[in-house]
Write a structure and sequence with these properties.
Number of domains: 2
Distance between the termini: 5 Å
Helix content: 25-40%
Low-confidence stretches: 192-199
Shape: elongated
Number of helices: 6
Strand content: 5-15%
Mean pLDDT: 87
Structural class: alpha/beta
Largest sheet: 6 strands, mixed
Length: 218
């Protein structure tokens, strides 16, 4: 992740987002919400400065487009006590409607950019992708986003894995992939059968470094 504004989002900051304050601790991940309606919540959020004062960091439409309402180094006002440690992501639709493929794709891409852990959690002390309902009364006592969408965190993470693999594949030529596979097998054999030929291979190290940057470095 670089910067505080998601490059794939339409940036529509709340005029009062700075009132929420900046994060003073590391974010645990992001919280999946549902707006219970169709259309952008921008006007609703912007008009809620008094007295409600509520907004999420992001909203993902059914078309797969993303709107961002505050820089990610600032807190949102979306899940009460959970605002201090989590980003918030609203999604278009209703709790009984599943996220569609375009929304899952957009959420997976956003997840990777945010650098969140590739896991889901129902524990406020966990990391990865959480849901509004997991916070109970301290988070407003909401059932959001409902069981249907909460279960789709598995699908989001599955797509995250596919995107990471695709990124690695796009970085390496077929010849490099073959060389990497051969080198990995050779190195594994050398760990089982010690040999004087186990010196470090600079080509192998270079390929591993490229894979590491693609999959680990955000």
């Amino acid at each position: 992740m670089t910067g505080t504004v998601y490059p794939e989002a339409t940036y529509r900051p709340m005029t009062f987002y700075s009132d929420a304050g900046v994060f003073n601790q590391a974010q645990r991940g992001w919280i999946l919400h549902v707006v219970q309606g169709n259309g952008s919540p921008y006007n609703y959020f912007q008009g809620s400065r008094y007295p409600g004062r509520k907004f999420s960091h992001f909203w993902v439409s059914k078309a797969g487009t993303v709107e961002q309402y505050a820089p990610i180094n600032y807190k949102g006002w979306a899940q009460s006590a959970g605002n201090a440690e989590w980003w918030s992501v609203e999604t278009e639709g209703f709790p009984t409607e599943p996220l569609n493929p375009k929304q899952i794709e957009a959420l997976a891409r956003l997840h990777i950019w945010l650098g969140a852990d590739d896991k889901w959690t129902d524990d406020v002390g966990g990391t990865g992708i959480g849901v509004h309902s997991m916070g109970g009364s301290a988070w407003g006592g909401h059932a959001c986003p409902g069981n249907v969408r909460a279960a789709q965190r598995v699908a989001i993470l599955s797509r995250v894995t596919e995107l990471r693999v695709k990124k690695v594949g796009s970085m390496l030529t077929p010849q490099e992939i073959d060389a990497l596979a051969t080198a990995v097998v050779s190195k594994l054999l050398l760990t089982v059968i010690p040999s004087d030929q186990g010196a470090a291979d600079p080509n192998f190290q270079m390929l591993l470094a490229r894979v590491y940057k693609a999959t680990v470095v955000k």
